[in-house]
TrEMBL record:
Cofactor section: Zn(2+)
Protein's name in the database: Dihydropyrimidinase
Top EC class for this record: hydrolase
Organism, scientific name: Paractinoplanes lichenicola
Record keywords, A-Z: Hydrolase, Metal-binding
Amidohydrolase-related domain location: 50-440
Origin organism lineage: Bacteria, Bacillati, Actinomycetota, Actinomycetes, Micromonosporales
InterPro entries according to UniProt: Amidohydro-rel, Hydantoinase/dihydroPyrase, Metal-dep_hydrolase_composite, Metal_Hydrolase, Metallo-dep_Hydrolases_sf
GO molecular function: dihydropyrimidinase activity
Keyword Hydrolase recorded: yes
EC numbers: 3.5.2.2
PANTHER family for the chain: COLLAPSIN RESPONSE MEDIATOR PROTEIN, HYDRANTOINASE/DIHYDROPYRIMIDINASE FAMILY MEMBER
Gene3D superfamilies: Metal-dependent hydrolases, Urease, subunit C, domain 1
Length: 466
């Protein structure tokens, strides 16, 4: 069946242009100058709307076992919320813990996602125990499983932590097989000392989560990861959830040298702060406990991150969607901030929150689309199947209404969370219609998708390397 998306403004890599987009089955068949498309197909009227590629959230943790509990969005609830918010592909993290077989971890994630996802999905692999077996498994995942990116942790000793020798070995392996190393760059052992000292002083409130993870320990780990990647013959490196100015400086310095060093940030670091959210009275700040933490509003982090997005020192905006409810989950940390499960849920709101950056004059329309769709597709080996409005690409398309308005609230969101990290936020723009592989799954506030329609996307190697 053919459908013509007519009268809209397509946002491409070079900026906006008026065009009609012909969808045939699951793919984009053609792009016509206005008025040049043949008559015949059903028409979706896109007058006054932006026509953008379905967004790709390259960092989610649906139903992730973490912090003594499990992230509250299932693949069903989380991908449905993502779809409603204009995201048509997620890349979630399958997990191997120390002592487990990598392929078993992957099989567990395939089992969790089977018949559950509303949109297409891929996996990165968390390697929580780098050893001879897991290194060999990395080759197999790249060659046969469509998994071409591996996350390592310099944080969380005793959970996912890798020491420098393990990191170097994994980077050497990635250098050989073409994969990308994704790094949680915080100095975990040093943070653990600060956490213990804070608790001994009776500093138990959520704000101390942030105060015991100073930006220096993110910058130091970022720098160390960059140097280790250099020792591993310039293994491609992608820093996840970058939150702080000093960490960004490390990435920028490496990129200025032409290195294959990339970074993402997340909406929470662009907008929220240690004082206003994490430091909220009582236990309320627990809503915003995540790692890396929110940073001080008295420093230049947020302005620097927006600037980094403009200059491509930050290439991607992901959510790091890792939701927990206050009740029974975040509450585990009453009286001890270190027991609050780490994570924020925003998978439904990333497209809108970044569009607000366009409205505020911080990002161009082209850069909005690049950071939420095109670059994630290229970075993680899904381009040009995903991430672009082009003939032959999957018809993952969002009609975005710049004259609409989005009000975010726990009362109206679709994520499985009993609060919103963005309660009361108003955005100048609105997701109007969402197509996933040619099927309209959301339109005018009505959701018509279904669990199980999303397909696993085996990914190729990154085509973003210099
Ligand atoms: O707080 C966070 N980021 N939780 C999810 C796990 C991770 O480190 O990405
Ligand atoms: Zn992380
Ligand atoms: Zn994460």
């Amino acid at each position: 069946m053919s459908t013509l998306i007519k009268g809209g403004t397509v946002i491409g890599p070079t900026g906006p242009y008026p065009a009609d987009v012909l969808v045939d089955g699951e793919t984009i068949a053609a792009i016509f100058a206005p008025g040049r498309a043949p008559d015949g197909p059903d028409v979706i009227d896109a007058t006054g709307k932006y026509v953008i590629p379905g967004a790709i959230d390259a960092h989610t943790h649906m139903q992730m076992p973490f912090g003594g509990t499990e992230a509250s969005d299932t693949f069903d609830t989380g991908t449905r919320a993502a779809a409603i918010g204009g995201t048509t592909t997620i890349i979630d993290f399958a997990i191997q813990r120390y002592g487990e077989v990598v392929q078993d971890g992957l099989a567990a994630w395939h089992a969790k996602t089977a018949d559950q996802c509303h949109i297409d999905y891929g996996f990165h692999m968390i390697v929580g125990g780098v050893d001879d077996d897991s290194l060999k498994a990395m080759d197999q995942l790249v060659a046969s499983e469509g998994i071409t990116s591996f996350k390592l942790f310099m944080a969380y000793p005793g959970v996912f932590y890798s020491d420098d020798g393990q990191i170097l070995r994994a980077m050497q392996k990635a250098r050989d097989n073409g994969a990308l190393i994704m790094m949680h760059a915080e100095n975990g052992p040093a943070i653990d000392v600060l956490v213990k000292q804070a608790l001994e002083r009776g500093e138990t409130d959520p704000v101390f989560h942030g105060l015991t993870r100073p930006q220096e320990l993110e910058a130091e780990a970022t720098s160390r990861a960059i140097w280790l990647a250099s020792v591993a013959a310039d293994c491609p490196l992608y820093i996840v959830h970058l939150s702080a100015s000093k960490a960004l400086e490390q990435v920028k310095a490496a990129r200025d040298l032409g290195r294959n060093v990339f970074a993402e940030t997340c909406p929470q670091y662009l907008y929220l702060t240690l004082e206003d959210q994490l430091g909220a009275p009582g236990f309320d700040g627990a809503k915003w406990v995540c790692s890396t933490p929110l940073r001080s509003k008295h420093e230049s982090h947020r302005a620097d991150l927006w600037q980094g997005l403009r200059t491509n020192d930050l290439s991607v905006v992901s959510t790091d969607h890792c939701p927990f409810c206050m009740k029974d989950q975040k509450e585990m940390g009453i009286g001890d901030f270190s027991k609050i499960p780490n994570g924020i849920g925003s998978v439904e709101h990333r497209v809108d929150l970044l569009y607000q950056g366009v409205v505020d004059g911080k990002l161009s329309l082209a850069r909005w689309v690049e950071t939420i769709a095109t670059t994630p597709a290229r970075m993680f080996g899904m381009y040009p199947r995903k991430g672009i409005i082009a003939p032959g690409s999957d018809a993952d398309i969002v009609l975005y209404d710049p004259n609409g308005r989005t009000r975010i609230s726990v009362e109206t969101h679709h994520m499985n969370m009993d609060y919103s990290a963005w309660e009361g936020w108003e955005i100048d723009g609105k997701v109007d219609t969402v197509l996933s592989r040619g099927e309209v799954i959301a339109s005018g506030g009505e959701y018509t998708g279904r669990a199980g329609r999303g397909k696993y996307v085996p990914r190729g190697l990154s085509d973003y390397l210099v």
